[in-house]
Every structure is written in C-alpha cells, then in structure tokens.
Amino acid sequence: MKLESLEKDHYYHIYNRGINGCNIYNSDENKRYFLQLTGKYLNEKANISAYALLDNHFHFLIQVNCKTEEITQAFSNLFNSYSKAFNKQNNRTGSLFEKHFKRKKIDTEAYFKTVFCYIHHNPIKDWEHYTFSSFHYYMNENTPNYFSLDKTYSLKLFDDINNLKYMHNQFKDEDLQGFENLAGQETKEPEGFKPNTIIKDKFFNYINQLQDTITSKLEEVDGKAKFQEDLWDRPEGGGGRTRVIENGNVFEKGGVNISGVHGKLPDSMQKYFGVEDADFFACGLSLVLHPTNPMVPTVHANWRYFEMYDKDGNIVDQWFGGGQDLTPYYLFEEDAKHFHQICKTACDKHNPEFYPKYKARCDEYFYNAHRNEGRGLGGLFFDYCKATDEMNMQNWYDFVTEVGDSFLEAYVPIVEKRKTLEFTIAQRDWQEIRRGRYVEFNLVHDKGTLFGLKTNGRIESILMSLPPHVQWVYDHHPEVGSEEEKLIKVLQNPVDWV
Question: Could you tell me the EC number(s) of this protein (predicted)?
C-alpha cells in the first residue's frame, strides 16, 4: 500500500501502535520521554494541535511546516530514537512499532473536529483529566513542557473554549466509525502480566518465574542440596541464568536453566533456515534432572520461543517449541501412565488432537536411531508452532505455558514415590549404562544442543544435561527375562500409556 505523503501546510492524523499490539510505554516515565523526543524532533517542523499517548498506541493531529522529506525524516528519527531507548531499558530487540506510521490527511473542517475529539476520547476512562493527552491543556492556559501546543486553529473552528468542551461531551461511539481500533482485541491475560505486552517479553517473564517455581520445589524434594546460580552474558547479545544442583539426597546432578539471546543469526543457522542477513531472538527454559537412585527416572523438559528478523528489524518468522519426557532405568508402568496423563490433560485443554500428535512426535524425536531404541518413555515434543487460522501466537503461548505449568505435577509425585527405594550396585551399573545412551542422543541427535553450539551459547549450560557418572560397556545385553530387558523391549516399541 502506497503511503500518503506529508505535504507542507496541510493537517494530518498521525498514529501507530506497538508491533503485534505490544506495549510501547510501560510507565509514565516512558510517555514523558516520548513527548520529550517529540519536542526535540518535531519542533519547528510541525504544529501539534492534539495528541494522546496510550500504553500500546499514540495519536497526533499536526500541521506540517516543512518539506515532505524533512517531516518524514523527523518522524523516523523520533521513532528510532525512542525504540532504541525502550529496547535497551527492557532488554528486547527488533521492531517496537508496526511498520510505517499511519497518516491520514485532514481535508475538511468537519473531519478535523472529528479527529480532534476522537483523539481526546481515546483514554476512555476519565478522558477529561487524562495526563497524557492534550485535552486538559485546552481547559487551561498551560502548554506541555516539551513543545508548544498550537491551539489557534482548533479554537477558531470550535468558536470558543466552551463550545469545544460541549462538542467533546457530545461525542458518541457512533462517531468513531471508520477509525481503526489501535488498542486491539481484548484477551484474557495470564495472571501477573500486563495486557498487550509483546509475546516474547511475556514469555521471557514467564520462564523467569517458572525457573523460580521449579527450583524451589526441587530443593524441597531433595531436602539437602541447593541450586547454585550462575549468571552469564553472551558477547553477541543476551545471556542467561544457569542453576545447577549436585550431590543431593535425591538429585546427583541437575540443571534448570533460562536464557534469552539475540543478535545476527550465524551463517550456519542461516543456511539451516534458508535465510540471508537475518537477526534472531531466542529464549527458553531447559531442565534435566539425573537422580542418584536408579528407581527414580531422569527427566528432561524444554519450553522455548524464537523470532527471526529481516534487515529492517521486522519479524519474518516466529514460533514456539518444547515438551517434556521421561527416561526411567526401571519400568514402573503406573509412573509412565501418570506422567502421560498429566501431559494429556494439559494438551486437552487446548486441543484434543494435541496429545496424540505431540506424543507421537516425542517418540519419533527422542529416538537413538543408531541403537534402534527410544531414549525413554516419551511424553510431548512440539516445534515450529506458528500462527495459523486456528491458533494465533497468543493461543500458542497459552498452550506452551499450560504444559510448562504441568511439569511439577507430572514429575514430582514419581520422585516422591521412588526416591527411598533400595537398590543394588548392579542396578546402579545399569543406570550408568543407560545414561550412556542418554549422552549419545544429546551429542548426536539433539537439535537444541546443535543450536546452542552453533550460536556460541554457553558451553557449561548446554552440556549441563550430561550426567556425572556414565558407563559404556562393550556389546552389553541385559539378562533374558530381567527387569532390565523388560525396559529395553518397551523402548524398542513405543506404548500408548493413556
């Protein structure tokens, strides 16, 4: 769509919102800074007759005082300067505003009056006293601290201040027809989040909170060991928070890590995705727990989000991925059924087709093809969950966080039931042999390990998933009819547990 040029001496309605409806102002200070930059870049280039700043969008009514190229560049400088500051403050990357700010030429006095009233009515609640709109400045002789508010033309059209106020009070919802709803559709947000925040910011906040919840509960279950925390930075952009637990009553080694990394997508990954000159943002929580007792299964879980940008910072692709899976050393069928039932319950809340679909993908993905056996008893695995007609990105966010929230319910009851069972040295040896198969999968087949290594991720965090004690025994086969052989047979032929 061709954008309308901003011509000197003409009036325009200028407006835009955050990309995907995200917040562009998280505080009053953000709004004040935006107005400060407005004065810096637009003074002498435009007369501002009206404005309103809402959390996720803004409106201006202006008259252009300079050449088209100059006013266009002034707006570009305003938005770029603010976006850089906002992104730095909120540790985010990519576009903040929707591409190309909107502009509509005001070609009649009646249209000017309508836009003027519409802008001031944008803060629906207590619009007459709203701090970040120009209306209250018309009701007194003050003007914003950041720029001069041009009241001359407005007061001329409305005759006087009393008529201006009267016309605003008469403004009705039906007068809004033909105006774009910049606030976006109202959605039910997860507790603790502000509405209309960008998906990646919400998800990054979510995994930060989930890490705290999971590590706190696991320390309670272990009763001895505490997680050691390690904060790290990635030179190319971003970083993470690694938490490792070792030598506890229950957990011999485990990690619950979060990361949020960004920057230029490495050449190897650009080839993998079939793109050129792309930037990326990726965040996620990844955990692996290796218990001491071979009767307690190892568990793995991962929930992640990825965005890719073009050279202008626009999102060109985005998706969620993740899952959770169980790797026992001895088969307790009731444990397998419990774990899978929790996974199914979480999936069914969003789509009854998700559990069988993602359970099958898990069986397929966590498979040691060179051994002709599964790594464990599976669970859920989903990847490249992108927006469709049936599932937008908010829907996917709701689904992935549902699965994340189900993890402790799926795993902790199993640990509590098995952690005090007695075991022999031979059973411990079997555990370490099976751990060798776990290592083989992670180093040979796992895409997450590959991505981390090729994006210069933190090696200690990537290889946290490897157990501390492992055995590789030449041509080992379990005794016929043993509990160990029973497990192998199940790993060779996936079971529908629920």
Answer: 1.3.3.3
Taking each helix axis from N to C terminus, what angle separates 393-418 and 199-222, rounded to the nearest 10 degrees? Answer: 0
Question: Across the chain, what does the average pLDDT equal?
Answer: 87
Using one digit for the tens of pLDDT, what is the confidence trace for 57-112? 999 999 999 999 999 999 999 999 999 999 888 878 778 988 788 999 998 888 89
Q: Which of 223, 231, 246 is nearest to 466 (CA)?
A: 246
In this prediction the pTM is: 0.60
User: Is 300 part of the annotated catalytic residue set?
Assistant: yes
Tokens linked to 329: 């050393």
- Contact residues for 5 (Cβ-Cβ < 8 A; gap 6+): 68
Q: Phi first, then psi: give them for residue 6, nearest 5 degrees.
A: -95, 110
User: DSSP class of residue 227?
Assistant: P
Residue 383 host element (H or E): strand 378-385
d(Cα 120, Cα 411) in Å, to the nearest integer?
A: 53
Q: What is the strand order of the sheet 57-64 is part of?
A: 46-54, 57-64, 11-17, 102-106
The active-site residue, picked from 300, 370, 469, 476, is 300
* Coil, strand or helix at 28: helix
pLDDT, one tens digit per residue, over 142-192 is 788 889 899 999 999 888 888 888 788 876 554 444 455 555 433 333 333
Structure tokens at 5: 């040029």
**Beta carbons within 10 angstroms of residue 65's beta carbon:** 16
Alpha-helix runs per DSSP H in 67-141: 68-89, 109-121, 135-138
Check the CA dihedral 428-434-438-439 and report its sign.
Answer: positive
DSSP structure string for 127-172: GGG-TTBSHHHHTSS---SSS-B--HHHHHHHSSHHHHHHHHHH--
Helix (H), strand (E) at residue 416: helix 393-418
Q: Which segments of 143-278 are extended strands (E)? A: 228-233, 238-246, 251-264
Which residues are within 8 A (CB) of 222 and not within 5 positions of it... i.e. 6 or more apart? 245, 248, 249, 250, 251
Catalogue all structural domains in the chain, each as residue range(s) with its CATH number. Answer: 11-176 (3.30.70.1290), 199-492 (3.40.1500.10)
Closest CA to 280 of 321, 311, 251: 311
Residues 6+ apart with CB under 8 A from 478: 430, 484, 485, 488
Burial of 261 (0-12, 13-18, 19+ CB in 10 A): buried
Paired tokens of 453: 């290594």
**Which residue is it, tokens 């060109």?**
316
